[in-house]
From TrEMBL:
Gene3D superfamilies: 1.10.150.750, HAD superfamily/HAD-like. Keywords: Hydrolase. This is 2-haloacid dehalogenase. The keyword Protein biosynthesis does not apply.
Length: 239
């Protein structure tokens, strides 16, 4: 299968970077500054992330035109604040914008950059993320993520798992879907990619949702490759 694969594209939030710890790291001081030490920073991160899929579903369903993730994150942040009886207007635009950019400053999993650097020797590597271009670029610059290109929802004008998110990415790269492989820690993402004709690689991130995570601990199907992490993936792909 992998003899024809020319490019690897990666889910980012959860697969390449640890969104929960990164958001909680910045939410904690923010909550302290506004006098809400009673709110758990990790719980706040979880609540913010819980609004991610519903916001994108408004776009996938056609009820809303394509809207970049930075704006969706900002709208979701204001909703989470209101759910905690915090008036966003009282926080201030600058503080809200700064916290919203926490998603631009997420840290990679420990082996991710080294593994991606190895994989880059043989394959084109790029994000296939629901994150927008500015978010992905800022994240990569800060963390040293060695992408060959920044691809994803804003380029495809479609949010995963819409088939167009996968198919337009292959089209942009000038390759057939079968020559493109999605690497992800989420079985649902891989299922949609396989249905669109892509190759698939599963790399579990068993603490993405914290120590009590119960989903995506193991592969749910016989994906083309299953690896422990990105270094193991590089080894399995002969890089």
């Amino acid at each position: 299968m992998f003899e024809q694969v020319k490019a690897l594209v990666f889910d980012v939030f959860g697969t390449v970077v640890d969104w929960r710890e990164g958001v909680a790291r910045e939410a904690g001081p923010f909550l302290a500054r506004i006098g809400r030490n009673d709110i758990d920073a990790h719980g706040f991160a979880d609540a913010w992330r819980a609004r991610y899929q519903p916001a994108m579903e408004e776009i996938r369903s056609g009820r809303r035109g394509f809207t970049r993730l930075d704006l969706l994150h900002r709208e979701n942040l204001e909703q989470v604040l209101r759910a905690h009886d915090i008036d966003p207007a009282g926080v201030g635009e600058a503080a809200l914008d700064e916290l919203n950019r926490a998603w631009h400053r997420l840290d990679p999993w420990p082996e991710a950059v080294a593994g991606l650097t190895r994989l880059k020797r043989r394959f084109i590597i790029a994000p296939l993320s629901n994150g927008n271009i500015a978010l992905m670029t800022n994240m990569a610059k800060r963390a040293g993520i060695p992408w060959d290109a920044i691809l994803g929802a804003e380029v495809a004008q479609a949010y995963k798992p819409d088939p167009q998110a996968y198919l337009r990415t292959a089209e942009v790269l000038g390759i057939r879907p079968a020559e493109l492989c999605l690497v992800a820690a989420h079985n649902g993402d891989l299922k949609a990619a396989r249905a669109a004709g892509l190759a698939t690689a599963f790399v579990p991130r068993r603490t993405e949702h914290g120590p009590g995570q119960s989903s995506d601990l193991e592969p749910s199907e016989a994906w083309d490759v299953v690896a422990r992490d990105f270094q193991d993936l590089a080894h399995r792909l002969g890089v």
